[in-house]
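Quick one, C-alpha cells below:
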C-alpha cells in the first residue's frame, strides 16, 4: 500500500523532543499524523494536543491516532491560536512542541486544493477552506504594487515586477481562474529560457500560498508564546522548508537564547532578563541521504531544536 504521507526528519524529531512517558506534548501542525503517531506511542501516561486548520487532515488524524490510544485531543485551529486554546483548556505548561511547517503530500497532490503548479485546478491554496482569501482573489484583485511586493518578499523572485505587470495586463481581458493559466502567464512574462532554468512558478506559488495563509506572520507571533509554554527542560522542534521560515525561527531562537546586548557584562542579571532557552544544534539538522532517496520533498527541510532553561 502506498504511503499516504512521508514524515520528514521523523526519527530526528522524536529523539529531539526527548519524550517522557507521562509528559504533555503538542503537535502544532498535525497534518496526516505521521509525527503524532510516534509521539503518542511513547506517552502512555501523558497527553498529546494537536492542531491543524485543514478539515480533511483533522478527520484522518483522529482515526489514525485512535488506533494507538485515546489520550489525545485535536483542535481544528491554526497554530497561532495554540497558546490561547491550551490555556482555555487548563494547560499552562507542556513538555514538548513540534512545528512541521511543510505541506503534507495529500494536500499537494489533491489538485482541487490548488497548491501545485503542475496540476490544473482552481487557484485556491487555502489551508482552511473557510478562509475568505484565495490565490484567485489575490491574482485578480491585488494592485500591481501589491503583487510585486508579495512576489519579491515571499517568493524572492527577481522578475517579480515583470510577472506582476503581465498578470495585471492579462486579467483586464480575462479573469485568471486556474493554476495552469497562471503558469502560462508566468512563462509568457519571463520567456522560456528563464522559465525552464529558474522555475519562477515555484516562487510565485510559494508567495501566493504564504499570503493566502498568512504563514510568516503567524509563525513570528506564535513562536515566542510557544517558548513561554515550555516547562523547564521542555523541548521544541521546528522543521522549516524555505529560507524565509528558517530566518524567522533562527532569529527568534537567537533572541531568546542570549542576554540582551544592554545587559551583557552585568554581574547579577534579573531572572526575567536571562536567556529562556538553549539551542541544541547550532547548525540545522538536514535529512539523511536515505531519507532524500525515499522522499525528494524532504530536500529543503531543516530542523532546529531548543530546550527551555
Amino acid at each position: 500500500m502506498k504511503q499516504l504521507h512521508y514524515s520528514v526528519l521523523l526519527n530526528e524529531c522524536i529523539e529531539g523532543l526527548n519524550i517522557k512517558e507521562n509528559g504533555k506534548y503538542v503537535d502544532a501542525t498535525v497534518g496526516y499524523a505521521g509525527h503524532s503517531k510516534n509521539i503518542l506511542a511513547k506517552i502512555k501516561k501523558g497527553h498529546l494536543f494537536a492542531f491543524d486548520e485543514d478539515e480533511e487532515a483533522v478527520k484522518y488524524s483522529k482515526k489514525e491516532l485512535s488506533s494507538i490510544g485515546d489520550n489525545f485531543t485535536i483542535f481544528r485551529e491554526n497554530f497561532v491560536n495554540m497558546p490561547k486554546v491550551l490555556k482555555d483548556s487548563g494547560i499552562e505548561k507542556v513538555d514538548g512542541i513540534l512545528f512541521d511547517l511543510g505541506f503534507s503530500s495529500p494536500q499537494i497532490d489533491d489538485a482541487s486544493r490548488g497548491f501545485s503548479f503542475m496540476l490544473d485546478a482552481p487557484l485556491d491554496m487555502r489551508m482552511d477552506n473557510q478562509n475568505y482569501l484565495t490565490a484567485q482573489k489575490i491574482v485578480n484583485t491585488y494592485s500591481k504594487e501589491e503583487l510585486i511586493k508579495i512576489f519579491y518578499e515571499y517568493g524572492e523572485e527577481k522578475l517579480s515586477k515583470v510577472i506582476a505587470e503581465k498578470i495585471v495586463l492579462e486579467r483586464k481581458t480575462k479573469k485568471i481562474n486556474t493554476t495552469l493559466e497562471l503558469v502560462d502567464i508566468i512563462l509568457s512574462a519571463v520567456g522560456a529560457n528563464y522559465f525552464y532554468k529558474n522555475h519562477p512558478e515555484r516562487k510565485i506559488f510559494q508567495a501566493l500560498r504564504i499570503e493566502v495563509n498568512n504563514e510568516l506572520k503567524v509563525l513570528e507571533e506564535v513562536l515566542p508564546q510557544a517558548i513561554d509554554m515550555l516547562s523547564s527542560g521542555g523541548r521544541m522542534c521546528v522543521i522549516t522548508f524555505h529560507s524565509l521560515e528558517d530566518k524567522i525561527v533562527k532569529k527568534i531562537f537567537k533572541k531568546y537564547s542570549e542576554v540582551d546586548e544592554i545587559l551583557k557584562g552585568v554581574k547579577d542579571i534579573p531572572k526575567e532578563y536571562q536567556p529562556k532557552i538553549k539551542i541544541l544544534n547550532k547548525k540545522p539538522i538536514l535529512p539523511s541521504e536515505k531519507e532524500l532517496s525515499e522522499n525528494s520533498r524532504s530536500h529543503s527541510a531543516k530542523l532546529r531544536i531548543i530546550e527551555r532553561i
